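Reposting from the mailing list since nobody answered there.

I have sequence plus structure tokens for a pair of proteins and want to know whether others read the tokens the same way I do. The first protein:
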Amino acid sequence: MQFSDKRIILFVGGYGSGKTEVAVNFSLFWRKQLTGLSIVDLDVVNPYFRSRERLDLFKEQGIKVIAPEGALATADLPALPAETSSAIKDKSRNIVFDVGGDEPGATALGRYSRMLAESQYDMWFVVNACRPFSQAVEPTISLLRSVEKTSRMKVTGLINNTNLMQYTDLPLIKKGEQL
């Protein structure tokens, strides 16, 4: 199964859509198909669950984590690792970006928009139809457009990640698929 033929994959979306979980699992899946993979943790707005919290698992799998270190690792600040630019320029590595939610998260991504435009990328918008601003078409499209505008990049696809954790069932997933 090939998810994308691009070297750079970005996961964006609203708060709580599950971007990080999707980015983590995709990275682990993709790593089985290639060598030279990095994950860039650009989640600078949500201290609850960030891909950098899976550092040991990523190291075990040979995935390089690019994220703020030291005291900045747990800070809720827009601290962007300098290594991100060099990773984008390194054509020998594939990269997964875990981007923070909504416009504030897309702002961090916007910092790299020109560099990423020179590379081929896929930017996947993760949707959880159970989240407050993604329960109907219009607010979801509005959020997607605001992420595009703020990041200065275009979404290339959607991922239905509709769930209510242990309460998820097939009708709920179908609700997200309809949306």
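The second protein, same order (residues first, tokens after):
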Amino acid sequence: MNIYPVILSGGSGTRLWPLSRELYPKQLLPLVEEHTMLQETVRRLDGLPDGKAPVIVCNEEHRFLVAEQMRQLGISPSSIMLEPLGRNTAPALTLAALALMRNGEDGIMLVMPADHVIQNAAAFHAAVQQGAALAQDGSLVTFGIVPTEPETGYGYIKKGAALPAAATIGKTAVKGEQTSDAWQVAAFVEKPDAATAQRYLDSGEYLWNSGMFMMRASVWLADLAAYRPDIEQACRAAYTGGAQDGDFFRVEKSAFSACPSDSIDYAVMEKTAKAVVLPLDAGWSDVGAWSALWQVRARDTDGNVIQGDVHAHATTNTLLISQHRFVAAVGVKDMVIVETADAVLVAHKDSAQDVKKIVEHLKKHNRDEYKNQRKVYRPWGCYEGVDAGPRFQVKRITVTPGASLSLQMHHHRAEHWIIVKGTARVTRGDEVFIITENQSTYIPLGTKHRLENPGSIPLEMIEVQSGGYLGEDDIVRFED
């Protein structure tokens, strides 16, 4: 009974702005533990019986970050599937199912978002074992989180008839291990208001919708074809027209772009008679807002979560994060204060869900703060804006050992490079030469050039750009 983890890593995490950005979303950040949320999701699989290498479905823009984070863990995914644009969870899962079926593996898919926290791995593993037995018999299993409060930020699942005890396994366990029976799904319910959420909690008939699932690949594809043939056909065309590209599988863009956007819940789970919910009590959170992050992080004696260069005086139950500057808080409570290089967020915890409105405002006004951090990561390293003004821009650039930028040329700008640390191999026109710490070079406008790090330590340099147009799209690449 092989279990194939399918990790969905396509979210943008707008409610955790300004740390989470479109091109560097929350699943790629170390928000709770030392590792990133994606890495913690993969590490959570350690010791899972019958577990295979994961399939990761992610946005094309995040591909190198995902691959690098897996490399850091020493993990080789069975596939990293690239979506050219977001189409929600049903198409993403379908791509993974098609990949498994092409390889002749009608295994059980364990479907997990990449940005959740589960604190009790033993309970999670026990629940997965229960879910695997149900999925093997043809059920579409979802995990419902045992609610601890009348939460209005989650969808709910109403339990229907209990399944016979013989349909579940794993009823003896260590403290905290999953032991509950499974239930048929009576209904999926949208996020409620406070009074309705309290009624759900009091009734004992409702569970939080976790967005985690288990099912055989063939069962998912059959039900999808029955209820959403348009999605099934579009995904099949996109997958069939796709191709392997190094570590990645690229689906065919035009076919996938034509695919309707829908969630696993709406596309199939709300329609099928095979839906089963398995209660899970394992310290779960989707970290869907700053208030949720405050709940899952360790707090001091005043109830504060503090990260970075922060001093809190007469401050209680507050989340304070500083990435660049000293942050001081005096006489505040129940607040969220997050400082980054280019933005500061101040919000009451009760309004944490509304942070997405800020992102909508930034998008509407074409501001870059919704999309990028000041530090932008690339396959070869990263760069960070230092200063900018009319006709000039200054960047701090870091190139990882052995890495190389593309051979390129700019129509509208010249560049001055000053090496701060390490060794650079520079291609400038027909010249190739080495420069080291405290040395510099000049790249005239319109000149082909390349920057490489042949050394064993990161190359750090300051780049001063000058010209009439300094946009990132002023690049003609000859070799990449």
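Reply #1 (J.P.):
I read it the same way you do. Residues 402 and 454 are 5 Å apart (CA to CA).
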